[in-house]
Design goal:
By secondary structure, the protein is an alpha/beta fold. The protein is 29% helix and 22% strand. 16% of the residues are buried.
Amino acid sequence: MVLTRPTFSEYALHAAIEGAKLVDVPATDAGETDLDALAAAVTDKTQMIWLCNPNNPTSTYTMRDAIEAFLAKVPERVTVVVDEATSTS
């Protein structure tokens, strides 16, 4: 499982429960999710990527077009979970 650090702590907790190996990809100095680094961290053993948007706890937001470009780089066999929170106001 590949994820950004820091990010929502429940992802790592559930990875531990399932016995998954975590690959942490540091957020940028501005606290943003580094999509290029996430894509580069994928190996033949990668099964899942968690993408929290906006990221918790940094509150940085990744635009839809950037996520779509990222998804095009990730092998189809890898499940990418985009956990998004939106506001209706």
